[in-house]
C-alpha cells in the first residue's frame, strides 16, 4: 500500500517511520558510504530537511514495514538543489509552486521490484492531484538507468565534472510522470489506477476507506 505522510504526522505511523529512517541509514550511510549523512542513536538517517515538514511517499510492505520511500518538498521553500547544488544549475535557483523536489529515494533491502514501480506511480499521482508540472532532484548519473527502466525521461540540467570514488558523477535534473508512465508502472505493481487513487485520497482524508490491496493466491499441488 502507498502512503503520503507529512512529517508532522509520522508519529502516527511509528513502524513505517522507524523502518524508513533505518533503511535510509542502511542505504545511504552503510551501502553507499555517503560522508554527509548522519545516523542517530536510534539508527535513523535524518537531516535538516526532515525537520521542514516534507511530504513522504512510502510503500508499505505486507508486514507493515517500509518498502521504499522518497521525500517531496515544494521548491518555493528550502531545497537541497538550491541550497547545495546551485553550481550545477549555473547559479539559477529552481523555484516554482509547480515544481517539487524529490530527495532520499530509498528502497528497502527487503523489498521486491514492485517498490520502485509503486513509487513512480505515487509520484505520478502527486503530480496529477497537486497539478504539478515537474519534479527536480539531485542524483547520480547511474540513476538514469533506473529512470529509463521506469519509463521516465530525465532532463539533465547540469553534471558535476568530478567523479566520486565509485566512478559516478552527481547530476541535477527535472522530470515529469506521464499517464503512460503511470499505466506501465501500475502493471508492474499489479494494481489499478482506481486503487492508486484510493490510496492517495485515503492519505489526505482519514475517513476515506481505500480499496484493499490484491491478495496473491498460490495453487497447491
UniProtKB/TrEMBL annotation:
It catalyses: a fatty acyl-[ACP] + S-adenosyl-L-methionine = an N-acyl-L-homoserine lactone + S-methyl-5'-thioadenosine + holo-[ACP] + H(+). PANTHER family: ACYL-HOMOSERINE-LACTONE SYNTHASE, ISOVALERYL-HOMOSERINE LACTONE SYNTHASE. Gene3D superfamilies: 3.40.630.30. It is an enzyme of class 2 (transferase). It comes from Roseobacter fucihabitans. The keyword Calcium does not apply. Belongs to the autoinducer synthase family. Coiled coil: none annotated. This is Acyl-homoserine-lactone synthase.
Amino acid at each position: 500500500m502507498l502512503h503520503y505522510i507529512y512529517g508532522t504526522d509520522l508519529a502516527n505511523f511509528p513502524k513505517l517511520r522507524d523502518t524508513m529512517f533505518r533503511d535510509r541509514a542502511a542505504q545511504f550511510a552503510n551501502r553507499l558510504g555517503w560522508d554527509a549523512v548522519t545516523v542517530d542513536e536510534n539508527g535513523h538517517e535524518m537531516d535538516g530537511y526532515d525537520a521542514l515538514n516534507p511530504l513522504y511517499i512510502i510503500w508499505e510492505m505486507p508486514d507493515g514495514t517500509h518498502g521504499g520511500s522518497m521525500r517531496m518538498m515544494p521548491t518555493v521553500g528550502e531545497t537541497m538543489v538550491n541550497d547545495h547544488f546551485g553550481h550545477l544549475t549555473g547559479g539559477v535557483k529552481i523555484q516554482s509552486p509547480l515544481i517539487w523536489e524529490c530527495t532520499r529515494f530509498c528502497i528497502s533491502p527487503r523489498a521486491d521490484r514492485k517498490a520502485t514501480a509503486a513509487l513512480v506511480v505515487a509520484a505520478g499521482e502527486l503530480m496529477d492531484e497537486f497539478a504539478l508540472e515537474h519534479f527536480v532532484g539531485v542524483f547520480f548519473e547511474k540513476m538514469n538507468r533506473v529512470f529509463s527502466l521506469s519509463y521516465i525521461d530525465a532532463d539533465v540540467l547540469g553534471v558535476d565534472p568530478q567523479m566520486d570514488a565509485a566512478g559516478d558523477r552527481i547530476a541535477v535534473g527535472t522530470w515529469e510522470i506521464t499517464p503512460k508512465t503511470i499505466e506501465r508502472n501500475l502493471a508492474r505493481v499489479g494494481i489499478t489506477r482506481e486503487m492508486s487513487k484510493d490510496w492517495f485520497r485515503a492519505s489526505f482524508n482519514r475517513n476515506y476507506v481505500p480499496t484493499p490491496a490484491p491478495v496473491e493466491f498460490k495453487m497447491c499441488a
